[in-house]
Design brief:
Elements lengths: L1 H22 L1 H24 L5 H9 L14 E7 L9 E2 L2 E2 H17 L4 E5 L8 H30 L17 H16 L4 E8 L15 E5 L6 H18 L12 E4 L14 E9 L3 H4 L4 H19 L4 H4 L24 H13 L21 H13 L11 H11 L5
Parallel strand pairs: 1-4, 1-5, 5-8, 6-7
Antiparallel strand pairs: 2-3, 6-8
The structure holds zinc ion.
Length: about 425
């Protein structure tokens, strides 16, 4: 009975469908042209896409190494830090400042924080002078494989576009095109990250804006680039970028460049974060500010500023894992600028940049900085006591009933600052 039914169905297909396709060659074409790209697409998907979910990364963080994992099969969160640009060329330059060196300094600061936490395994791609051997070797031994791998992902995008599963969008901000070998090294880093089961990739950059000559440019602030929403690593990256963004935003201006002003910017074309849907890890690129901003050009502040940006980034990662133990190391302060002890009065003429920088930070924590009506783009923390700081000081002093010290830090203001901000609360 059942067999007869099956045979009847097969017979019906043979008798009805085959002649129909034969007499409708255009329809048959349509069917096969649909099937063919789907076949290609499936092959690529099976070969190369294992995007990290939020749950994957969190479970790595929360797994206790050593119980189920045998030696070598670590379940730690693998994080790859990529200081932007090549060891010896590329990136923004301003006076004697070089972005490619600043990115290394921040990367090493961040590595220091992350290394103190045994739930992470951290890699950095290069130092000031060269690629780390593991990456130099990888580029050398896999150069043609990397190119083939890029081609595979490009083809997949072509197929997906043909199927209407993918659409090209104009980038919100135009970036400089990387030269071929630079691009291939960036793709190589993406490929290495996939093969080495990396959970998080973090690219570090500083921005620049063309045409400002010798003086500072018109825009300021930080922005985080994340993969465009159609890419498989977009959701996880966005969740991570949100927590990092929140930390950075407390102390730093968000970019006021049109196209970056949302702070978190989706991008389809940046190789670093997985152009052509090529990266499995959560992968973001942080532009930590514009190279000509005062906290970077001021040599007395630069290292402290970079270290604090690294600390904010680390706190952002910890927020993603809901682990706030890093904070207890610094008392109640979520910035390394605090605690700070002031010993000398401060005025417009003060040359102690670190004291003024800490003053600006204390005023920010007190809710007085930037002064009402201004943003951190108008009033960055500069280490110089100018109009922004004077206005904020006035509010601080008014709240505490301090008089006779308008626009300066006299003995009474000094005492109030030290009372609240010189001691690490436990
Ligand atoms: Zn850069």
């Amino acid at each position: 009975m059942r067999m007869r039914h099956i045979l009847a169905v097969i017979f019906a297909i043979l008798v009805l469908a085959v002649p129909w396709l034969m007499y409708h060659p255009d329809q048959a074409d349509l069917i096969f042209s649909k099937i063919q790209p789907i076949g290609d697409q499936l092959a690529a998907v099976i070969l190369s896409h294992l995007p990290k979910s939020i749950l994957d990364i969190r479970s790595h963080y929360n797994s206790k190494p050593g119980i189920f994992a045998s030696a070598g099969s670590s379940q730690k969160v693998r994080i790859l830090i990529v200081p932007g640009h090549e060891p010896d060329y590329g990136g923004a330059e301003y006076g004697s400042l070089k972005e490619r060196n600043m990115t290394v300094e921040l990367a090493n600061d961040l590595k220091n924080f992350i290394s103190q936490n045994d739930r992470y395994e951290v890699f950095v791609t290069r130092d000031d002078s060269s690629w780390k051997p593991i990456f130099a070797d990888y580029f050398k031994n896999n150069w043609s494989d990397i190119a083939a791998w890029v081609k595979l992902h490009k083809d997949e995008i072509v197929n997906l576009t043909r199927l209407g599963e993918y659409r090209q969008v104009a980038p919100p901000v135009i970036h400089n095109n990387a030269s071929n070998d630079v691009a291939l090294r960036l793709f190589g880093i993406d490929k290495w990250a996939n093969e080495n089961n990396v959970d998080i990739v973090l690219h570090i950059h500083f921005n620049d804006y063309a045409g400002h000559g010798n003086g500072p440019g018109e825009y300021s602030g930080f922005a985080i680039y994340v993969p465009q929403r159609e890419y498989f690593n977009s959701t996880t990256t966005k969740a991570l970028a949100d927590t990092v963004f929140k930390r950075l935003k407390k102390y730093n201006a968000v970019s006021d460049l049109p196209g970056e002003s949302s702070g978190i910017v989706e991008d389809q074309d940046l190789i670093a974060i997985g152009a052509f849907n090529s990266v499995d890890a959560a992968s973001m690129l942080v532009e930590y500010g514009y190279i000509y901003e005062p906290q970077f050009t001021n040599a007395e502040l630069r290292s402290a500023a970079l270290n604090d940006l690294a600390f904010q980034t680390y706190l952002g990662l910890q927020d993603f894992f809901d682990d706030h133990s890093a904070l207890s190391a610094n008392g109640s302060f979520d910035t390394l600028v605090m605690p700070h002890s002031w010993s000398d009065p401060l005025s417009e003429k003060s040359s102690n940049n670190a004291d003024v920088y800490a003053l600006q930070t204390a005023l920010l924590l007190d809710g007085d900085y930037p002064p009402t009506g201004s943003s951190l783009n108008d009033c960055p923390r500069t280490g110089k006591l100018g109009n922004c700081t004077k206005a904020a000081l006035e509010t601080f002093q008014k709240k505490r009933g301090i008089s006779g010290e308008k626009g300066i830090v006299g003995t009474k203001t000094l005492q109030e600052l030290n009372k609240k901000y010189s001691v690490r609360a436990i």
